[in-house]
Each structure stands twice: as C-alpha cells, then as structure tokens.
Amino acid sequence: MLELKHLRCIQAIATSSSLKSAAEKLFITDSALSHQLKDLEQRIGESLVIRKQQPPRLTASGQTLLQLAQQVLPLIKHTEQQLNSPQQRLNLALDCHACFQWLVPSLRQFQQQWPSVNSHFCHDRDYQGLPLLLAGEADLLLSSEFIPQAQLCYQALFEYEMVLIASPQQPFSPNQPIVAADLQQHTLISYPVAKQRLDVYNYLLKPQALEPAQWKYADNPATLVQMVAANMGVAAMPYWAVENYLQQQLIQQHSFEPAIWRPMYAVYRNDADNPQLLERFVQLIKQYALSHLAGCRKLPKEP
C-alpha cells in the first residue's frame, strides 16, 4: 500500500541532483531515504530509480508514481492549510426586505473572489439586524438607519428613492407627485412591521399627522407587488425594487412630495475579525449599486 512518504520520496528524487540532496530535502538521512526507496520498490515489485546516473533518473514506473505525487501532494497541502486556518465567515443581517437586485449580484462576485468564506443570511423575527450585530451573530448589517455607537463602524453605500406604486386602474395623475393627504383615501400595503419603521410613515404621513384609510400587510416584496397590481392597495417601495414590474406595465409609479431619498449603510463592529474582508464586500456592493441600479445615487456625505 502506498503512503504519503513514498510519494514525497519519489518527488524529492525527481527534483534533486542526487539521492543525498533528495534526503536533505526530506530532512532524513541518506540511509533512511535508501530504506524508504527499497521498501517502495519491494511493494511495487519493480525498480523505480536508475541509481547509476547523476542526477538519478526515474524508470517508467517511477514516472507513473511521480505523476500521482504531483496530483495528490498539492491537494494534501491545500487541505492541511484550510484545516489549520480559522474558518472565515460572512453572516449578513438585513433591515431591507427587497434588496436582491443589488445584494445577490454583489455576493456572487464576492464568493468568486473569496471562495473559502462561508456566507450566511441571519435575521430575527422582526428583521431587526442591529441586535444580531451587537451580539456577534452577524458580521455585517445592511440598514437605512444610522444609530451611532462607539463600537460600530458605518460605511455609506448609496441612497435610493422611495416611490409610490399603484395599480394602473388607480386614477392618479401621471405627472402629479403624491402628497400625504392623497393616502388618506387609500389602503396602504406594507411589510408586517411597526409603522414607525416605515419610511412612508416617518417621512410623509407622520409630519402631517395623517393615516391611510387602511393598512394591509405582505410578508415579502413579490406578494406586496402582486397585491398592488391586483388593486388591493398602494405601497411605498424603492424604485430599483419595482423597475421590472413597471416595464411590464403591471403597476404605475409616482414620486412623493417631498421626495423621499433614503440612505443605505453597511455596518460592522470595530473589533471585527477580518475588517479587510468586510471592506471588500462593501466596495463590491457600492460599485454594483451605483453602476446598475435605477433610482440610486451616491450619498452626498458620509455619516
């Protein structure tokens, strides 16, 4: 039965000017190398090295073993390095329900560049990512909220426009922006979170002390858009999240007055295990979003 020491022996002989120098590469004595070689030849039943030549030359059977060594030994070395190095991870927490258009392409590119990193999404029941980040369960949080804390580092990604989406059957004027009073007569569809976490409430309705005629809820972006298209209500969404549905004329969109532009931040702890890795992922997100997303622009200033 072949052993790894036999493959290393053959490889050392093939790359050395003499059996003595091959032994030195293996950090063994000349006699130990001769013993290993003799043991291997007895197992194979053939000579593997032409000893009378300098440098020593492998026989045909020796060349066959050399090819095996060249295939197996690098794999062994790579596996040992992986096992001996700490496992790298990228646990992502999201305060954003509809971010596939920019997050997934960025994550794919990141995984191609960092194939050894184990990526994972984590979130709690209410899509509150900050507690997960502070507890160490998440490595990176993507959020529109800026809550300064000494142990957190915020990286500005981009800002995006929130728009109102409605069924084509709704009699909104095409060029007329939506104001808070317009929503008093409509059902507003949102995600099942507290209204205080909704941009349309905080930046449009709350300043005017107004409420929609009714609230309805959808668990995910696809269901929300389908409900809007079916004329069950209207909703506020990032423009980049609904652009495809607009092109299909399933819905119509309108800007708000005043316009609602919201920032997107990448947040991580100052004591992160691998800040370089996180910084690289942040840069990939920023580059992709600013070059591919409609209704998206560079933040005018860092937090």
Commentary on this structure:
Keywords: DNA-binding, Transcription, Transcription regulation. Pfam families: HTH_1 (PF00126), LysR_substrate (PF03466). It comes from Agarivorans gilvus. This is XRE family transcriptional regulator. The protein has helices at 4-14, 19-25, 30-44, 60-84, 100-113, 129-134, 199-205, 221-229, 239-247, 275-292, and strands at 49-50, 57-58, 89-94, 118-122, 140-143, 152-166, 187-190, 214-217, 235-238, 252-269, 296-297. With 303 residues, the chain is of the alpha/beta class. It has two domains: 4-84, Winged helix-like DNA-binding domain superfamily/Winged helix DNA-binding domain (Arc Repressor Mutant, subunit A, Orthogonal Bundle), CATH 1.10.10; 90-303, D-Maltodextrin-Binding Protein, domain 2, CATH 3.40.190.290. The mean pLDDT is 88. Helix 1 (4-14) packs across helix 3. Helix 5 (100-113) links the parallel strand 3 and strand 4 (118-122). Strands 3, 4, 5, 6, 9, 10 and 11 form a seven-stranded mixed β-sheet that branches. Strands 1-2 form a two-stranded antiparallel sheet. Strands 7-8 form a two-stranded parallel ribbon.
Can I get a quick summary?
With 303 residues, the protein is an alpha/beta fold.
